[in-house]
Amino acid sequence: MAMRIKHENTTAVPDLALRVIKTELNGQRQNLSFLTEDKSTYYEQIFTSRKRWLENACRKLYNNTQRQSIAQALTDGANSTKNGYLLDKTRQIGICTMAKVACTNWKRVFLAMNNVNASKIPGPSIHGTVINYGITLNKYSVSEAAALLSNFTNVIFVRHPFDRVLSAYRDKIEPKPDGHYWKGYGESLVKKYNTKNESVYTYPSFELFVRHIVDSDVSTFDVHWKRYVDHCQPCSIQYQFIGHQENLNEESNMILKILNIDHLHEFPKRDKFYKMAPTNELRDRYFSELKPELVQQLYNKYFEDFYLFGYI
Fold it and tell me: What is the pLDDT of residues 234-269, one digit of tens each?
């Protein structure tokens, strides 16, 4: 039987519960092969429904005095939000890219929209390229950025928060012979939790990584596991299109079609340098290592992400 957990703060959303570990995200990867001419209409309804869900969820979680203006939100999350937000000023389209949510390929798309051929740029180099070509928000002041976002068609892609945490662990923390994150996080996590000078942890297991997240303040989160609510400010910035990675290629290409920019760039396939086994196929194995109370604590940490984007 699937384990069910609830957010500890039930005052904001009574009786909210989430299936974890055994949750089947396949239900969100719908077989749409039967749709032909009606596919665009179908997806427009899906995107409208998600937008309404987000708007209602924001109202439930934050009253009018708690909700920030775009300028206030950008001030609080300035570096993270502005560095991750890509622009096409000519067409007035923008996207808040999230690490571990197809951000590399969306950066390729926006480079193409800005007349830059990024098809042969290696994945790890693409992040600096968008900054070098000046298509992020970070070159604008807060007031200028807020004015742009108020008039743009804004896009965001999300995925199940637990899958994103696991993806960050597998890509950045899981044992490697070398690497920036191994030195910066892996070794320090082992030392942090070996409080009795015993070799209990010889490498940063998934449990150790989750414990680190649970014990950390959300303001200190690395960009690869930073929350959507903090990075993309979804209750301040109005997103017209909310895509799900669980149906990534289908929804990405449909958004490009609806925005009439599909002729510029088809959404790219998954880069070969990523690990072969998709994260969602390994979720059960990794999360079975965790005690239920630790899963609950991790859920509490990402509660806003779960609720705002309908992963309940």
Answer: 999 999 999 999 999 999 999 999 998 887 777 866
Which of 55 and 279 is assigned the larger pLDDT?
Answer: 55
Cα angle 247, 29, 21; round to 5: 105
pTM score of the predicted model: 0.83
Comparing C-alpha atoms, which of 267, 302, 58 is closest to residue 168?
302
Instruction: Give the whole-angstrom CA distance, residue 235 versus residue 220.
Output: 21
Range 123-136 average pLDDT: 84
Measure the CA–CA gap between 121 and 32, rounded to whole angstroms.
Answer: 32
H/E stretch holding 44: helix 39-61
d(C-alpha 62, C-alpha 39), whole Å: 34
Structure tokens at 285: 């194995």
Strands 4-6 and 153-158: unpaired
